[in-house]
Specification:
Elements lengths: L5 E4 L10 E4 L9 H9 L37 H10 L1
Antiparallel strand pairs: 1-2
């Protein structure tokens, strides 16, 4: 069984659980690995000792978007913004 997931690594995340996130690329839900393993063995009642082989292949890496600062000149602002600014002054 081959499944595809999106792995997001963010070492500066506020919470520990957001630093390493594995998600389904379509539903954006975190995978329930125990449920996937149960499906693979047939989900028959009982207790199992299982061996799980994880083979990871990076298919694509997206760069982290950096915040950009944009500067607007007075000529790029809408005309009503300039009128409001004159009223305030």
């Amino acid at each position: 069984m081959i499944k595809h997931y999106i792995l997001s690594l963010n070492p500066t995340a506020k919470h520990d659980w957001d630093r390493t996130v594995l998600r389904d690329p379509i539903a954006s839900k975190r995978p329930e690995l125990a449920k996937l393993i149960a499906e693979a063995i047939g989900a028959e009642p009982g207790t199992y000792l299982v061996s799980v082989n994880i083979d990871v292949k990076v298919l694509e890496q997206a760069p982290i978007a950096q915040a950009e600062q944009l500067s607007l000149s007075a000529t790029e602002l809408p005309p009503n913004h300039l009128k409001l600014q004159e009223r305030v002054a």
